[in-house]
Amino acid sequence: MLLFTDRELVQEGELKRLIMRGVCRMFPIHAAPTIKVKNALILCDVDLENLASASMLRLALAVHRAPDSPVVFLLRDRNHHTESQARALGASDLLSGEEGINAALRQLMAKFSFLKTHQSCVPPETQLAIEDLLEPNTWNAAGNYQGLIDAGAQAVLDAVEAEGIHHWMEEVMSYDNLTYQHCLLVAGTAAAFGSSLGFSREDKVLLTTAGFAHDVGKAFIPLEILNKETALDAAEIANVRRHPMIGYAILKEHGVQNTDVLGCVRSHHELLDGSGYPAGLTGNSLPDLVKMVTICDVFSALVERRTYKQPVTSEAAYDYLTDNEQWFDQALVRAFRRSILPT
Ligand SMILES: [Fe+2]
Ligand SMILES: [Fe+2]
């Protein structure tokens, strides 16, 4: 979400909270943003009675508004003139009055409640992609999900390479929404894994994308099962185990064509000895890319807090991977260690 404004500071209200949470990026209208976010929601908080501000906003929107971007105007002083100015500038929606604006922004805030309470290093491309991927209602819309997951994953890779995996882990571990947290953690560890192995940019993006999208099918599993604090019964386990095939099918249906990524989504719960699911594939029929995503997935699940378990340390999670050589490729596990743990 982008905010174009002519205000010096946003000091109060829900807008400030959105900015503090890193949900919304604020840009003075005279300074062009350095990022472009496809389909981003754009908020405009500009004094439309001021002609100079209105014309600068027009220029900013002309450059940075994607064809599908909704543009919402916050009209603090709503009158016939400001309303027609906003319409002329292409408003998709108008919010007016402090109360009305704050109420609408609170709804946006609730939607983004997975985010932490201070500035996030998670890039907006990634936030938008994860929101779209894990929100089942948005899947009805026709969308380019290959582009969406690629953009989200590339931004993860860039952030991990710039800031380091430990910074990334620390950041995403504070998320409230555990499924979002998990997808970002698997994507981040996958990015670090590919980087430490000296993969080409293309292969790093592929691995990160697979990690980013691997659990998308969980968006279609009831939250009361995913967040259940006690042991799952047999029917619930069977329900959760549908998520790899659901993810595979829905991504394919929505334009994801990369067979390597689709294979990881479908097979990330397969294990070397054939005891995994959904197909019970064994090690020799599993590509390395799938085995790598599985390692990142299991490691991440162990170090995360869940409703039903406490987190373990990175060392303990690594020990679990080495203790279970019947399930995980040990050469890859050793390589993974070098990307995550200090030597
Ligand atoms: Fe999974
Ligand atoms: Fe997972």
From TrEMBL:
State the InterPro entries in the record.
Answer: HD/PDEase_dom (IPR003607), HD_GYP_dom (IPR037522)
Report any Pfam family annotated for this entry.
HD_5
State the source organism's domain of life: Bacteria
Q: Which SUPFAM superfamilies match?
A: HD-domain/PDEase-like
**GO MF annotations, alphabetized:** phosphoric diester hydrolase activity
Name all HD-GYP domain ranges.
157-343
Q: Which PANTHER family match?
A: CYCLIC DI-GMP PHOSPHODIESTERASE PA4108, CYCLIC DI-GMP PHOSPHODIESTERASE PA4108-RELATED
Output this protein's name.
Answer: HD domain-containing protein
Q: Which organism is it from?
A: Devosia marina
